[in-house]
Batch of 3 targets.
Target 1
Amino acid sequence: MTAPDPGSARGKAGALEVEHVALELGGRPILKDASFTVAAGEFIGVLGPNGAGKTTLMRAMLGLLPLSKGAIRVNGAPVVRGNPSIGYMPQTRSGLAGRHVRGRDFVAMAANGHRWGLPLANAAARADVDRVLDLVGARTLAMRPLSELSGGERQRLLLAQCLLGDPKLLLLDEPLISLDPRHQTGVVDLVRSVQRELGITVLFSAHELNPLLNSIDRVLYLGNGSAALGTIDEVITKPVLSQLYGSPIDVMRVNGRIFVMAGDVEVDKLDHAHEDGPEGHSHSHDHDHAQGHGHGHGHGHAHHHTGTHSHDV
Ligand SMILES: Nc1ncnc2c1ncn2[C@@H]1O[C@H](COP(=O)(O)OP(=O)(O)OP(=O)(O)O)[C@@H](O)[C@H]1O
Ligand SMILES: [Mg+2]
């Protein structure tokens, strides 16, 4: 692991503090009592079986869902809807592949919002769009329509969209879904490099741990209504995972990869076996990309970023 010493940020207010949080949906308990603190500048992998509450927890951080108990603080402040310091990539991203809108215009949609018609705001929004496209190395590919981009390339533009407005915390919900393994690695590497460059905090949910192994600082594992946050060695263990799954779990390490097994079945294969369809989901949430970001606030910052990346995504 090449973690940048997230420990140095501990002791100060965490980037994300979750204290005895309970969450319910339709009267069903999703989380019962979750407590953890993410330090500023950490890259956290969020794992757990289908339905464990990964998406629900992210929505609670965005103020889209009331807490039934406990408190969440983002950069020391209570959760607020439309918080401009959080960038969000929702899990459901249906239909992007069929859209003929130019990549740049797609990214800009989330920046402009209601500000169309205000020349100064538009200039600032344009500068922000340039900034985020440079950050993900997508200035050139953003000239093409979404329908002509690969899944990995579209993913880069979605990441660019989340970076509008210069958020300090990114919530990325299943950015690897429906990508082939090569593109998965490219997306993880891209997020990691942008996260380091900006010094921001990232929560990155995924079905599978292995694509994240070399990038994440710590892992947040949800299951059985609770949450465990720690290093891979602390969390990806027989006792911790057996508790979170509510059944006996084995952890096998083979050639630098980790397999989480229930009996002789790999749990992520088991859980997500039904997710092979085009959109890959058996349930969906009412996300809308153009409004799911909480941006459109304060695009008047000066951005001095000039670097570009070239990633094989
Ligand atoms: N509107 C709703 N009303 C009631 N239950 C819901 C609602 N939305 C989601 N759920 C349930 O809440 C639980 C948590 O869902 P959530 O989407 O947060 O899980 P997840 O960990 O993100 O799962 P996945 O890996 O499939 O994305 C699931 O059992 C889901 O079926
Ligand atoms: Mg989810």
Target 2
Amino acid sequence: MMILYLCLPLQLLTLMFSPHFSLSFTAIMSDSGVPSSLVNGPQNGFSMKHDVGARTDSHEQEAVYDIMRATGNDWATDIPDVCRGRWHGIECMPDKDNVYHVVSLSFGALSDDTAFPTCDPTRSYLSRSVTKLPHLKTLFFYRCFSYNPQPIPTFLGTLGRTLQTLVLRENGHVGPIPDEVGNLTRLRVLDLHNNHLNGSIPLSLNRITGLRSLDLSGNKLTGPIPGLTFPSLNILDLGQNLLTGPIPSTLGACLPLIKLDLSRNHLNGMIPEKINGLKSLMLMDLSYNNLSGPLPKSLKSLSSLQALILKGNPMGPGPTTIPNNGFTGMTELMTLVLSNMNLHGPIPESLGQLPNLRVVHLDGNSLNGSVPKSFKDLKNLSELRLNDNKLSGSVPFSREMVWRMKKKLRLHNNSGLCYADKSGFRDSEDSTFNQYGIKLCDEDRSNNNGGSEGSLGTIVQHLSVTRQKSEPTTTNVVSSSSDAPVLVVAVTVTRLLSLTSLLLFTLILL
Ligand SMILES: *[C@@H]1O[C@H](CO)[C@@H](O)[C@H](O)[C@H]1NC(C)=O
Ligand SMILES: *[C@@H]1O[C@H](CO)[C@@H](O)[C@H](O)[C@H]1NC(C)=O
Ligand SMILES: *[C@@H]1O[C@H](CO)[C@@H](O)[C@H](O)[C@H]1NC(C)=O
Ligand SMILES: *[C@@H]1O[C@H](CO)[C@@H](O)[C@H](O)[C@H]1NC(C)=O
Ligand SMILES: *[C@@H]1O[C@H](CO)[C@@H](O)[C@H](O)[C@H]1NC(C)=O
Ligand SMILES: *[C@@H]1O[C@H](CO)[C@@H](O)[C@H](O)[C@H]1NC(C)=O
């Protein structure tokens, strides 16, 4: 079995699916010399030497010509034998009588490295002749019909006996997802990402019991998410639609889920407690919906989760807090994004005990109290946003940590955050302004005998400092003399992270 990532922008995202996943990968990348899937792919054409008497089914050959003509590839009708000669985008398999059948057709310039036939987007259409390919397992059209908007043809439903992968990505398809798609009961991958599809998600999809990856993101789908129950589903992406209603608790029964993305819809209600069975889940993105609080207690049982993104949900009606041990057990968690969720109360100390945290965004809430001391143990932390909250007290970071995060550390607009004299903030200050927007802690200021007040004058001026008694500061900061190598590592880690946050990808199981 081969898995193929299509990332837009096309970038390698194996990071998310590292060792837990025993299947092999092929990644398509736009900016590298990695060969395309088809070059690696199984069974392209046949060799004259070994296949004396081999021939291609003539009806299928005619059908391929039709499909080629319909995409503006008229040149292809000059190919004497479509299964012979390793034509990119066409894959064939022999039967026991050495007759070759078309099993896969792919169109569209996915990247510079993939040589699938391109489509003429102004006049292309999906030819009905695909129904004359009785062995077809994969049908892949990418950016093919963009300027000739057309519905997804219902005749595709007749390919149900064989079709396993249907990808109609960024094709400008309009209208609803036809019920007939539910007739494709052998599908493993259904990818309709970035079209203009409207109407609701058809319940008929539930008939596709072997589905591994369902990507309907980037459309205009409305109505509630139906009670989907796919026992083998790994990827569910319904993001960037107009879906309403609650997150169905039936999703909790899709036990093999690895990625769940319902972001940027109008979903409301609470996150269902039933998600607790999703032990394989690595990414959950429910951001920019209208979800309400409190956060489910079962979150912490998502033991494989690497990225939890809930930002931009109002979490009303009452004030929602981050439960004290709400994330304990999420030992794999690398990315936690809880910005703009109207969260109140303290940041739990237990958050600093998640050893793999790399990106933490808690900005734009009403969190109060101090920054947990445990945060200084987060050795991999490279991006921390605590800005626009009501936090106070001394920031417990070592010089090394401040240097590691640099501009990815955001602390401005809090009630009374301050830094200790011996912390890394002093060193990293630009001579004209303090990019972190925090002041020197009071104790340190007096210890310092006002010596550095001059250089701090501009820092304080745009702050609304609430003169409160700040906590005693522990300034047992270890100063590292080797800042330079640390920085290099930090930059690399940050690069990897910006990839994880671009989780726009789909999985294709061939
Ligand atoms: C295909 O799906 C439609 C609508 O769901 C249904 O009416 C029809 O009977 C199905 N056809 C086959 C051949 O299964
Ligand atoms: C879907 O969009 C088409 C225009 O492309 C429109 O005519 C139709 O009414 C829409 N259907 C729904 C259910 O919104
Ligand atoms: C969000 O949900 C609340 C109820 O929790 C509702 O009152 C409000 O109208 C919803 N807002 C939108 C934009 O749907
Ligand atoms: C930090 O990241 C490294 C490499 O990505 C990993 O090996 C390590 O387990 C992580 N956690 C800690 C606490 O260093
Ligand atoms: C934080 O805010 C809550 C009210 O939301 C208040 O009860 C609590 O005392 C505050 N805690 C601190 C440390 O300021
Ligand atoms: C400061 O943060 C609060 C949220 O805690 C926000 O409402 C306010 O607009 C922010 N102020 C500025 C000047 O950005």
Target 3
Amino acid sequence: MISFFSGSQILPSHFKHTLQMARSALDEMSISGAFVRTPSTFRNFISRDPASPFPAESGRYHLYISYACPWASRCLSFLKLKGLEKAISFTAVKPKWQRTKETDEHMGWVFPTSSEEEPGAEPDPLNGARSIRELYEIASANYIGKYTVPVLWDKKLKTIVNNESSEIIHMFNSEFNDIAENAALDLYPPHLQSQIDEVNEWVYNGINNGVYKCGFAKKQEPYEEAIRNLYQALDKCEETLSKQRYICGNMLTEADIRLFVTLIRFDEVYVVHFKCNKKMLREYPNLFNYTKDIFQIPGMSSTVNMEHIKRHYYGSHPTINPLGVIPVGPNIDYSSPHDRERFST
Ligand SMILES: N[C@@H](CCC(=O)N[C@@H](CS)C(=O)NCC(=O)O)C(=O)O
């Protein structure tokens, strides 16, 4: 069955306190001034079963991303790590949000008009869309909600399969193994699944989404609460990573990729832009070396475009950085040596 929920059908109870249906992350605010993320909407699953509505076929699916976005970047990381570049094509949008239509004020992800306009970003090769918003409108005429990346697109049915990165990475990990060049890599192995789920839960709340809760808080109290949770979670990671190479033991898993996408943005963006400045990542020896270690896994550095990352955050959130000036530092070299080989894998 092909599933599509209109945003309002799946709102959790805390969302009733938000002022209106969010059209972008800038609106996701509760009355207490805390940032509240809206759930994703398209939740279909690609399956290795050829009889399913969305079977895992080479050349059928396309991933729309922004290099700036940590959620999209985790999907791109799985695509690269699993060796799916030939099977699943992808396109990156321009980093800075712009008007998506002349007829209203919505700001969001747009495509360049040529490959030269913005290195790394490409025009939409499938639908000639001007914006990610247009893709949502092609997929569903009555869509209400945010126009987020990642978008996993079905070229055959001309629709969005799924826009929830935590599900897209599971599909890439397990459903394309007849096609994947690196099918043997299992980042969500059965014997570690409950441990990975448990780590993902506190890493998501404290760190991945935690930095957004710090940055988008509109009042002191929710900001300070988010900061407390963030640094508690980072301290826990530091402690764990002083004893083992990866966050769930001595094997790379999904939980590492999910943690990495936030850590790699931390000192360059979140310390300044989201006021996560109690401690910088580079002050945590284990977390800092761990971030370098993951960055140096073949394929991973190509998922990190720091130019896009900085241009997006500092340029797209006028409530946080109204003039859009981009801080110049710190330009950390994540390809420099690290000490993580000291753990056996
Ligand atoms: N739940 C989604 C979240 C994706 C998300 O929040 N993407 C942001 C970029 S980092 C976005 O596209 N925001 C558009 C907007 O807020 O208008 C996922 O993990 O896939």
